[in-house]
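TL;DR need structure tokens for one chain.
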Amino acid sequence: MKVLVIGAGFVGSAAAERLIGLGHEVTVTTTTEAKVAPLAERFGNAIVLKGSDRDGVHAAVAAADAVIVTAGPSAQGSMTPEGRAKTYREILVGTAENVVSAPGDAHIVCLSSLSVYGNAANHLDLVTEDAPVTDSDDPSPANFILMEKTYLAAGERVAVLRCGDIFGEGDPPIEDKVKMAHQYLGGSVPFSGDALLYRLQVEDAANAAVHAIVNKLQGVFNLTHDEVPPTNSTLFDTISLRNDLPALEYRGEIAGPTSPISVKKLIDSGFTPSKSYDPALDELKNA
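>> reply
TL;DR here they are.
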């Protein structure tokens, strides 16, 4: 099978390696010309491609049997509403529009975010894929929701994976991120303090994307660990206290569920995230 991986970053590179190991022919994309040669050496095929390049996306998708879209906004540009407004629509929705309008019938898997639920499902005991999504006008959930609708309009050839906060090798540890929030963001973050902090290890993210491609999954799937985590404020403020720092300010611009997330639908499809939860966090749940 010929698989196009749009975005050879954190998750895309790991998914490409897994697909090649399974014997598939993979082409990865980057927006930086200087990265093409090392990516081609690593994966065999690499091209420069921006999601906003309609003709380029059409040509690349038309040549593929399947497409994994892992390209997303950078964390650096996501900390303010202005930063999110500047890039989210182009990167998320623009790419989706060009992928689904490409010739052919390639199976599509895209990574979305659990932030689409916002606080709209907090009245539920368990947040399943059928739960209501937020009506927030913040550029993050609003554009993730529009991106999902764009992909899902293509019908049964699409799977959307709603991911927790992705972490792994090469990503700063969460303790360092809290320190950076104090150092560079003035101790203020755009998240809700009472939201449960669901995370997703990069290998789980990549393996789930490959699972969705190989098994031609259809529809929406929550993708994170099955265990209930502590809240943002519980974990972040514990880290701050340990480092003699004040508690963070939670601006609540990007809300998140306070009810547990169900991953049963994905598990029932044959894939169980196994690397994403740190048992050391159990002691914080009831703090």
